Amino acid sequence: MTGGTSAETSLPETVDSGNVASGELSPVAHMVSRAKQLYSLPTVAMEVLRLTSNEHATVVQIKECIQRDPAMTVKILKVVNSPLFGLSGQVSDLNQALALLGIKPLKLLVLGFSLPKEMLQGIEAEVLARYWQFALTKAVAAREVAGLQGTNHGDDAFIAGLLSEIGSLVMLQHLGDAYADFANKVLEEEADLSELEWETLGFDHNLLGCRLLQAWNLPETLVQVIRESHPSSGIEFETLHGQSETLRLAHNLAEVLAHHRLDLMPRFLEQLKTATGKDQQAVEHLVVDIQEKLHQLAGVLSVSLPDGVNYCEIVSDAYVQLSLLSESVAVPLAVGDKTPSQRCIEAPEVKGLVESVKKLVGGVPEPVEPDASSEVESKVEAEPVAAPIIADAKLLTEIAASMQRCRGQRCEFSLALVQINRFETFLMSAGIDEVEVWRQLVAAIVDRLSDGLGRVMPCGESCVAILLEDHDRHQTVTLTRQTIDLVMGWSQRRESHSGVELSLCGGVASACVPPKSLPSQEIFQAALRCMQAAAKGGGTSIKSIEVL
Question: Which is more confident, 28 or 527?
Fold first, then answer.
């Protein structure tokens, strides 16, 4: 991840669903709880879910249930008769739809068309149009890509794509203009929305949406596909398969088309070739089909799209950019140049969003104007702050790989973060070379205590990450405590540390057989929040959490 957050734009809570030691709800848990109270799936959708989970339910019962909602029936028949499904003849009633599609696709259509009306109310028309543009593009692209792959899961992928952006609706409803302005700034800078959400809030809209779908008791397989197919899950494309692979391709193409992320076109082309063996010409046909069916689906759902949507022109622009890149030699960024993420991080829209989330969860008192004496005290007591601790792509990839191995072996995975307290003071007194010696010592101690099962990786200037396979929470906390004690004992004997007090703290996040839906970024953030809580407590404390 690029960029960073300042001390004033960081949230105090862990991203996990409220099971931190403090017992307080995290922002995600708070927003999910609030959304679940405010919005519920329509009665027909809930009844269809109940019936289809009962092996004794009949087709007649399901049909009669759907027919109780005339608007739902009309939407289903419209989309079934659209080119999206490519049926040879017109379908005039639900009996035919069931006969031609089967129960599962019909069930999925009911779920896909059952967003609570309240979630769509009060959102500015232009903002809502952009939401639908991305969500519908992703849904249609998923079905078209599944066709290129020669698979039969296009219907499932279509619904997963349609529901996958619901977290953005929750953010828009709960945070209003603050989130809309933030998202606009990210799109303006052509940065990654989820990446900026993780860096500033500690979670993203995809994770939030999945939590809400789980709270609504939607099928776990559907939620898992949505979560692991999103790039923010940290799962590499090469390890995905089935619907998750299809939806990742659809997501990246939707980013190119709807969010104008032309920089992602090379990645999409490479992934599409890997998954389907298709070339550039196939992409052009794919985009033409998507544009046509996008507008048809928008008509079925009676939703508006932004004016002037021309995906063929966007793809042409992407190819031009690709050509220019291939003809030029990459040059380093000039001094002072910043990445899109860094420009966004420093924007006022980011601070506004973070403050809105803090107020939503009730964690921020109203600001009080400081008097002159308090300003003097703050200047005297203020201390330089180390750069923010952010997991880079290499660390997230290693975490994902470790969790995958643990899933295969049906064993626990734990991540520990260990940080030097008052890092700037230690650095100025002991020097940068001592920081590297400290890292090497931690690695050696962890290797010995874990019998070679632990891996230590750098994580920012002041922190290291310890990846432990086949280690539960209790074992990891014990190992981390022993490591901290041994390092501090070494520091006290170190001549170069004379007069320098080395103080360490730790945070541990563990998962018992980590599920596929658990992204590497999420478990990293959970460990980070624990470590930050430990640092606030002072001394050499360790805090831990079990990520469910």
Answer: 527
Angle between helix 473-493 and 432-449 (nearest 10):
140
> What's the rounded Cα separation, in Å, for the pair 167 and 310?
26
Average pLDDT, the chain: 79
Rounded distance between C-alpha atoms, residue 207 and residue 213, angstroms: 10
Beta bridge partners of 544: 508
pLDDT of residue 13: 37
Residue 51 CA: distances (Å) to CA of 324, 384, 481: 55, 60, 51
| Residue of 376, 448, 455 whose CA lies nearest to 413 | 455
Point out the domain boundary residue: 54, 84, 113.
Answer: 113
- Residue that is written with structure tokens 């860096």 in the block: 199
- With 0.90 as the threshold, say if the pTM is over it: no
Q: How far apart, in whole angstroms, are the C-alpha atoms of residue 265 and residue 321?
A: 9
Torsion, Cα 332 338 341 346, to 10 degrees, reads 170
Query: From CA 117, how far away is CA 39, in angstroms rounded?
Result: 8
CATH number at residue 285: 1.10.3210.10
Whether residue 135 is found in the same domain as residue 194: yes
Cα-only R_g, the chain: 25
Task: Tell me: do 473 and 536 sit in the same domain.
Answer: yes
Sole residue written with tokens 């089967």: 102
366 belongs to a structural domain: no
